[in-house]
Structures are given as C-alpha cells and as structure tokens.
Amino acid sequence: MCGIVGCILKTDKAAPVLLDCVQRLEYRGYDSVGIATYSSSGINIRKDKGKIDEVSEELHLEELPGEVGIGHVRWATHGLPTRENAHPHTDCEGKIAVVHNGIIENYKELKDQLVSEGHQFLSQTDTEVIAHLIEKYHKEGFNLEGAINKAISKLHGSYAFAVISTDEPNKIMGVRKESPLILGLGDDEYFLASDAPAILQHTRRIIYLADHETFTMDEDGITVKDRNGQIVDKKVETIKWTPEMAQKGGYSHFMLKEIHEQPEAVKNTLSEVSDIENIVSQFPHFKRITFVACGTSYHASLVGKYLFEALLGLPTDVVLASEFEFSEGAIDPDSLVIFISQSGETADTLKALKIANKKAKTLAIVNVLGSTATREADYVIFTRAGPEIGVAATKTYISQLTCIYLLAACMGKNRELLDELQQIPDYMKTVLLLEEDIKEMAAKYKDAQDFFFIGRGFSYPTAMEGALKLKEITYIHGEGYAAGELKHGPLALIDDDVPVVAVVPPGKSHDRTLSNVEEVKARGARVIGLGSEDDQVLSYEASDMIKFPSQIRELISPLLYVVPLQLLSYHMSVQRGIDPDKPKNLAKCVTVE
C-alpha cells in the first residue's frame, strides 16, 4: 500500500501543495517519498528514502517549480527502500514520470522484454515498467492517452497510477484498477489522491473512479473514460468527513478500517504465489519444520503446524521466540526454521534468527521490506498487508496465514488448495457483512469479566487468537483452550458468569467440539457458536450463533473464522469506552527483550 497525489493549480506552485498532500497520506507508507513537477525546464524530480519530514528537510521538496505535479509516499513492495526505488519513476529520456499504487504481477516478464529492446532501468520496482511501456508506445506513434491505454493492456495486477509528460505538458493522466484513486475539483484547480485525507484541505468535491476508468486532468477540467474509451458522466460528491475521519476512510478507528481491509490484504498476498514457488524450487529436502514467533504471529504459526503435518507429513514444531534458545539443540541442517514477524524487527525473533542461521536454513515471513529479518534470513516471503496502524494485529495476521497456506500448497504442489485460496477474499467480504449482528452481540457480553474460547485442531489457534484480541483491546480476561482440555482443569472455572466462544467448523473436529459445548452449557455458560450456516445442532445449542458459508471447510477456516472474533472484540472495546487503536501497556513492534 502506497499513497499517490497530483494537482493542477491555477497560479500557486504545485510542490508545497503536493508535500502537504503526501504528508496527510503518510499512514499509507513511510519508507520513501518523492515529488515530480512540470515547468518550462521539463520534469523536475526530488525523492529519497526516509520519512517525509526528513527527506523534505534535506531536499526542500516544496521548492520545485511549476503548477503541475505528482507525488508519492511509499510502502516498499518491490525493491528495498532506496532513493533509486522511490517514486516517481521515469522513462529512459526523463520525459515521462509515473507514480503508482498497487502491484504489477507480471512486471518481471515485461521488464525482461523491455530490457531486450534497449530500455535501461534504474530501479528494482514493478512501477518503472509502466514508464517504459508508455515510452515504447509513444515512440510507436501513439499520443499520451493512446500509449497509456496500450500499456494498460499489458499490465496484470492491481494498480492506480498517474502520469505527466513533457510532450503533453500541463496535463495529468492515469487509471484505476483495483487500487483506490479519487479526483478532486477545486476552484479552477484539480487534484488526485489515493485517499480523501490528502486533498480535504483543498477541496471536498470528489469524483470516485471505478475500476478500469482512465482520466485526463488539465487546466480546463477533468475527463473520465471507461475501458472502451467512452466518456463517462461522473457524479461529483461532497465529502463531509473531517480530515481525521477521512484518514481512517470514514471508519471510527484504524483497527476497524484494517479489519475491513483484510480481503484486499489477502488478495495482494496471494499475488506472491509465483515468488513462493520460486523459493520452494530452491529448497533442499527438509525433514523437519520449526516455526518461531511471538504473540499473534505465534498463533499463525500454530495453524502452520497443523497445515504442514496434515498436508506434507512433515514433523513441525512451534516455538515462542523468547524460548527458542532452550530448543536450539533440536535444530540441524535438515531443518527449515520459519520466522514470522510483522515488523521484521522484533528483538526476540531476531535473536532466535541469529541462533538458527548457524545450524539450519531459515525463512522469514514479514510485512516490512528491508527490515533486519529480511536481510538475515536465507529466504524471505513478504506479506502484502500494507501499513497497520492499530496496535492489535488484524490484517497482518490474516496475511501471515495466507503466506503459510501458500507455502504449504506450493511445497505440496497442491493445486486444489491454491485454487481454493483464491476464493478467500470473496468469502471474507461475506463474513464482514455480519458486523451489525456482531455489534449487537458485543453489547450483550461487554460486561463479562472472563471469557473462554475453545476449538480443536485448526480451530484451536483461532480460539487462542480470539482470546488474545479480547485481552488486548477490551481488558477482559480471556483464555483460549483446546476444547479437549476443558476437563483437565478449566472446567472448574465455568459457570453462568463466564461466556464461552466455541469455534466449530464442519469437519473432523466438529462432533467432539459439540460435546464440549454440551459440557460448558451444563455448567451454566452462555455459548457463542461459530459454525456453518447449515449446522442446525450448533445453532440450537448456542445462545448466539455466527454463521459462515457452508463451503468453508475446516482446513481453511482459520482464514475466516477469526474475522468475527476481531469484530466482536473491537465492538466490545468501543462499548466499554476504550480506544482499540491504542491499548494500554502495548506497542506495535517490540524491539527490546
């Protein structure tokens, strides 16, 4: 996830406005920033890695000349955070500049073709192929609009980009496909941005682009066309959000916004499959897998254990990073040690990684390109969740799970699972429609002092993650247990004051978990059941029921059944008067032991 902006002003310089706009999008990315403006001297670009204020102080971004320009704040996806990889990117002659949000899935293929034709690339990004494709078709005789349309026809993936060119000055053109892009209308001034907060200080009159729509913006106005080149009469809407509300996309909190961003996060992470297949092709024969992680990432690793043992028959361990030094004796050259960390900077995880590197092959699953873990592991898989502002992990957890499923499917050459994973974003959108029911449910249980979450097999880590979310943001004591362990102690704590959340998808664990539901009901507990929409027994036994599409089988249930538990904790937190984005005593990245 990155942020793009652009503007055409009547008399004022564009650069100070573009700088203000990207500063308001820094939550979308913060590892590099750049601005390009057009003036009589041509296209002027200043960019570098680092936070916006730091780069601006060094390069004086606001001093660029011209009334037309584009800008970008980056969350690295292809290529490390460097000056060369920062946007905007240009063609060979510096006559075309591009800023881009999204992922070009076939960029390697396109880059190889363009290099063979003589194009010279300066970065490792996927974005640069857009500039060179436009250059290629422009030289073949197409005008800028035609060259952009030809380039679009070659791109696979999700993207929103904006282009300026010296051959058609005082104009910005671009397109949206599965990545956010809005246009803004001021008083004879025009704007574009990934999100509304970037331009709310300048206009509240917004045009929302649909997928495959292109736009041309010049001093005379804005023209929008559909994928067939027909002009579209777009409705201009007036936003009533405050700038802070807009930064959160209209959601009350970043956590809620990030829960709703999970279908997009999964979709973006699924695009990593070709890179994962390439990594797997380099693997020697491993006899054992060990996952190492902390907190939420530990729960994702537990799902990995069940998955790797069920699908690959590989003995798999899961070790807390802080405890790894006591288990290193079991690691040998035939082991693959997988480290999972949202930031790639977690102190305990990095300490364990250094130990493992001396004895085994290591793989890091991380969300931050260029982080320490990515430099020290033998192999790296990137989650594509984008920046996560809320302290409690939601979309990063789902993206980690997606990577684990992709890795298992690729190692096992399981085409059926790979195809099934492609359906997860749509299933997730369906699950998110349950929010209003979950909000009402939260009101019923928000005053409880203790909760138990139970599940078996693949549902056990989901129960643990549900309990963790409850503890983190509601300050209610919650415990996740393997359902079969209830009778070995926890059952003594169950009574009518302790609600129990039972994760009961259809499958191997279903009937025995239902027996555990009966046990806690017999002790007076109210049960919140999570199960299939056609599970009549669970629906009858549970006090409240969260129903899922019946096609969701047990194997993939961890990717979906956790979402209502995130929402349940979120709404209970809000109803208890707590800020879920900033739970007490917790921080986003633990970089100390």
Automatic annotation (TrEMBL):
This enzyme's EC code(s): 2.6.1.16
Keyword entries, A-Z: Aminotransferase, Cytoplasm, Glutamine amidotransferase, Repeat, Transferase
Pfam family, one: SIS
Glutamine amidotransferase type-2 domain boundaries: 2-220
Primary location group: cytoplasm
Superkingdom of the source species: Archaea
Subunit annotation: Homodimer.
NCBIfam families: glmS (TIGR01135), PRK00331.1 (NF001484)
Job description of the protein: Catalyzes the first step in hexosamine metabolism, converting fructose-6P into glucosamine-6P using glutamine as a nitrogen source.
Protein name: Glutamine--fructose-6-phosphate aminotransferase [isomerizing]
Lineage of the species this protein comes from: Archaea, Methanobacteriati, Methanobacteriota, Methanomada group, Methanobacteria
Gene: glmS
